[in-house]
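Example (one chain per record):
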Amino acid sequence: MIGRLNPYSIFIDFKNYFYDQKILKQIQTKIKIISIGNLNTGGSGKTPMIQFLAEALNDQKILIVCKSYKALLKKPSHVDLTNANAVAIFGDEACLLQKLLPHCQVWSGPDKTDTVTAALSANQNYDVVFIDDGFSHRKLFRHRDIILVDASRKPSHYQLFPLGQMRESWKTLTRSDLVILTKTEGLTEERKKCFYQKINPYQKNVIEVQFKSNLESEKKDLFLITGIANPEKLKADLQHAGFSIQNEKFYADHFAFPDSEQVWLLNEIEKNKHLQPVMTAKDLIKITNPELIGQIKLIDLKIKFTDQARKILNEKILS
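Predicted structure:
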């Protein structure tokens, strides 16, 4: 009964109804727009997925649009990494994508539709536009919608607000073109079956991918420092790869790492000289202290597809 009377669910249903019935109009572009989104809050692998797709289309002119979440930017702008305060201005994910994909143009702004409009007004010479986390942003028409579902999360995570962390219900997957179960490494078939039972009534096009945490470190004892949505999964992956997490510091997702915190981390690293400090790229891009940067090893996240999954991705999204 609580779920049926959930005010948030009622609001989302009405919003989607108005867009589905074309009572609320969507802004359309001639350039192909692909959204890489999810149903829930928190990380599901959108950044490495965008990186994979952009590298697969590296012969095309690509625009990537991000929301300037927890950033200072007040209007749409092209991400400028030469700015000393780039992360604070444009947002961590936008800056990371621009660094990882220098052949792409990354724009950031408070509103995705306004940012797409501004970017295309400045330059129409794009072949494809990737929208980071655009599924719930109905105002902008997309030619393809990819939904990522983090299969490592507990079932309780996948309930609508306020009971869980879902922004949209499973039934909205009828709007998607492809669902990708991410972080499936180590999961039992029974666990994955639970997700298929939720997804398949609304979307039959489902593939699975694994995320591999690559870390080159002679030291096997680690000091894990991270501000991502699901640090426990990262910790488990590193342990599975043969590393031992002897010390850890977990921050809130998108933590900014101010100067004072970087000094504190340097002191903690000094106390734990026998440990190798490690961070993800999303964390490391926010570190500005040269001494701290010099001591941290990067955990590089890569996506692993089967040949069949890659074929479906090409057919449904990239063709």
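Caption: The chain has a mean pLDDT of 94.
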